[in-house]
Amino acid sequence: MTVSSNRVFAWSFLLAFGISSTCNAVPEPNGRRVPLVLQRNVESKVSKIVGGYPASEGEVPWQVALYGQFFCGGTLLSSDVVLTAAHCVMSGGQLDTDFKVGYGGLSLLNFPFETAVKQVITHEAYNENTFQNDIALVIFENPVQNFTNLVYPANLPVSHNEDYEGEEVTASGWERLSFEGPQPEQLQAVQLKVSPQESCKNAYMAIVDIGNTMICAGVEEFSKDSCQGDSGGPLVKVIGNYSELIGITSFGVEGCAVQGYPSVYTRVTEYLEWIVDTACAAGSCLEYEYVTDDPCEDGDCTTNGATLNVNHSQLIILQSCIYLFFILVQ
Known about the structure:
It is found in: Secreted. This protein is mostly beta strands.
């Protein structure tokens, strides 16, 4: 599979003329930022994993690739629902639904499974200039027939209240290995740490507003990052054998792994209700349970949704007002 030559040319043109000629300019309020230009990978939509490693079989079974006139990553949530970034499927206010989804393998050149797209839904408040609400759902035309250790949906968080600051997380995708470098054939992964929200907000202050719907991650030595190829891909918190999807790769500054600028992800915990409600409205209800913002209002701890869909056999302990225990039997 290849990225459209027209889009590659457009991205190259943007890099050559829209960035290099404005090295000392003051960041503009409309979302065009220089000298540290925000990189959402609108054209090639290819982010890169810097300082990562080739993922092994079954390590990221929820990873999918979206490809057509663009290339992005995504996260499998069920047999027919994928979570990705809105900027992957929308450009210039136009929704792109003419693409396919590949999954079940590590190689970018040969996916064991491929499906056309039935429906694409972006967040109604998505803003291309500010990157707010950079989230979308993709509904498969042909659902996954069987889950295996190579194809398995990710877990959504069970609580709105986690901030994950300082936690070790993993980003993945078919990202470039260096800025403007070659795109790898094999799926890459990188271990990062969730950055303090306030420091990330301060870092991007002159470029874009980092709100509560965003989460930042990087490493202190800035030798690792997600950047061009992983747009729309997963940011996952691993707890033993249990993995929880906490972010969607959204944007960063041009260059990637730039000191002082962690990559920015859409914070999944802020969109749990939107994800569940939107998928169900599209006829693809998720097996999932989340705790309300105030689960113990009036002394009654309540939950919304159906049953929690947990990957692999394990115990989850959720502390919100009481300890809720979920055990998966498969």
